[in-house]
Amino acid sequence: MDRILIVDDEQGMRDFLSILLKKEGYAVAQSESADRAAELIGKGEFDLIISDLSMPGKSGLEVLKQTKAANPDTPVILITAYASTESAIEALKLGAYDYIVKPFDVEEMKAVVRNALEKRRLEHENRALKRELKERLRFDEMVGDGPGMREVFDLIAKIAPTNSTVLVSGESGTGKELVARAIHAGSPCRDRPFVSINCGALPDELLESELFGHTRGSFTGAVTAKKGLFEVADGGTLFLDEIGDTTPAMQIKLLRVLQERRIRRVGGTDEIEVNVRVLAATNQDLEQLVKQKRFREDLYYRINVIQIRMPALREKPEDIPKLALHFLVKYSRIMGKKITRINEDAMRRLTGHDWPGNVRELENVLERAVALETSDAITAESLSREVTSGGRPAQELPIALGDGGIDLERQLERLREHYMNEALRRAQGVQTRAAEILGMSFRSFRYFAKKYRLLDGRKEPRASVG
Fold first, then answer.
1. Is there a single domain that holds both residue 247 and residue 334?
2. Across residues 418-444, what is the average pLDDT?
């Protein structure tokens, strides 16, 4: 039901318009002054404002300005008994939807109201379609054919149609936000907003205002009321990136919202219901933070309904060539260059690099290479120094065959222990993934891991996706 606010100092006119519009199926609120209207506009969103132009104190133009400051897309209809060309021009310049002279025709008023609300709906639908298009384009950037990415794609397809809270974990640069956007694009709320915020980029005070909004005058500089991102994302998806960087105080507030689906603006007393699907991401080990009392256990279990772990690029070297070619095509098109391939030497160096910055680093390297390359193929000379300086250094065998011979079995045991320990480090302790890296069966890996005491201080075998 569309909500309309009527602002007029005459009780009779307010009541007349209220009866008229309620019969048309609208929810109607009244205000006798511009100041009172500002309070109502600050507390809740209206779909349309109808205001008298001439009122004691502040005029309808002030109502128009206040509305546009708080909610720029809310249409405002001004009515007046004292029409003038100057006032009409000023009202339209300030963004009024229409300007109606009293006495007005009832059918004309109903038509103007319907058209104003229809225009607002169309604008919202257009923005939603543009967002969906952008989200699909971002989804296309998720490239990979290896087992790690196939597992991610399968999970996205399964959970996108649900309303479950999802935790996306993985190192920086692995594409956690792309996963969140793909989940949203495949969900029933795909035509509603997708809103993202980096929780680690703001201090608590600013983060609280960004998430929950604030009322006018709640702090210095809060000259108008502002909706928070939970309200902006209402009906859609809110992506909380780097949630592990939040403070315990903020974690309590987030937990309350997730449990009760209600928020309270900073400086406000009224509670506002929100219907938002929350997706969270972290590059930290939240279980370890819970043990260290740096992350609330109840919030951890609340956001970790389903977990998707993004593999690091070094864990999926089979995807590097396809990703590199994807970024080559992308930036060649952007820069208007006709670079069609990556030569063998350059590709060898790309696949040999350890990629501590993951997919984001690879994209930056290809963007730089396309910008610098003058031929039709990316060469090693166009790659960054970090990539061309050697990539993954070859491991020297920790043995030497001397005159007296060696204990081969013992040396092989040392090699096995060394590579298993390295695989566990790269797999962030996930034994099933470490076994895959080494081409071992999980049973065999677990046997030798216990034999070499590699599991001391680590958890028992766990699934890669919770």
1. no
2. 81
